[in-house]
Please model this.
Amino acid sequence: MLNQFSRTELLIGKEGMERLSRARVAVFGIGGVGGFAVEALARSGIGSFVLVDSDRVCLSNLNRQIIATRSTIGQYKVDAMEERIHDINPEAETETRKCFFLPENADEFDFQSYSYIVDAMDTVTAKLELISRAKKLNIPIISCMGAGNKLDPTQFRVDDIYNTTVCPLARIMRRECRKRGIKELKVVFSTEECVRPIAAIGDDCKSSSDESEKNRRRRDIPGSTAFVPSVAGLIIAGEVVRDLAKGE
Model:
């Protein structure tokens, strides 16, 4: 009988679809990368999601984040994503966590209940804590490296962290993973050299009364597009679906 996942079942089979429906995928970071990853996973029949992000949708998200529309500005990103998931698959289970994942709150997460973890965060400390927890419990994880200041989506690759090149974030992660004895880590990274932003702009998603902090944030804000982080997110979703459908 035809259903919304019939076309996917033609490729991965009934048993694969059943594995996806039983899977619980935790996505940390529901932005340009994580949002597209969740969207594709929901459309692939993943049965349960944990969505983790502390931010709200803001005006500058409209150029690249699938959850960002004029009507969602001001909403928590996890709430906007949860609504999209249920529009696609009303039977999917969702848990939303409106927080920024850090070592200080890591014990509040039920990692052992996750079938797969997607790291779509951009903070090194948070990424390392998440990866360390996943490796300790032998939970499959895929981590996205830098997607900002890029213009060529065709230069993304999937590989082990120790085979990455060019990406500045990957360089830091290689060093820190080695220090922690992490022997392997599946990542999505770009071989494109970073494009230097033309000018600094303010960030409407952040606020601070400290002028030096405002200036630091302006320097740190990367340029981004609709077609680079989205491709990274879709690549991540493809890896998760293939691994889970095969029972890996």
About this structure: The CA atoms of residues 28 and 89 lie 20 Å apart. The chain has seven helices and seven strands.
